[in-house]
UniProtKB/TrEMBL annotation:
It comes from Lacihabitans soyangensis. The lineage of its organism: Bacteria, Pseudomonadati, Bacteroidota, Cytophagia, Cytophagales. This is Lipoprotein.
Amino acid sequence: MKMLTLLAIMAFTFTSCEQTEVVVGENFAVSYKPTQCSEPWDEAAYTNKGNLSREERFKLFLKDKGVSNLKEFKNTQDDKIYCSACTCPSNDLFSFKVSEADLAKLKTFEPFKTALK
C-alpha cells in the first residue's frame, strides 16, 4: 500500500510540473496614407460592390490579396486641406497590425510593395 501511495505522489509531482509554453507571433504595425481616389480599392471592382465605405473596400482589397487578419485597425482622419486630384493624398490614415506572414504578403503587391520597402 505504501508503494502505491508513493507511486501516486510521484506521478502527481511529475505531471504537475509540466508547463505548456504558448508562443505568440509578433505583430507588425503598418500605416498607410492613401491617395484621394487612385488606389486599387477605388477601382470599379470594389466601388461596384454596393455602398461600401472606403475603409470596407480597403479591407476587402486586402482580403482578396490574402491578408485578412488585421488587428487594431483604425482610420484616423486629419483636418488638413489637400488638392482634389486623384493622386493627391487623402485625409485618411489607415493603421493596423499584421503577422509576419501577412507583412510578407503586403510587400508583394502595390501600393504596399513600394510603401513598405
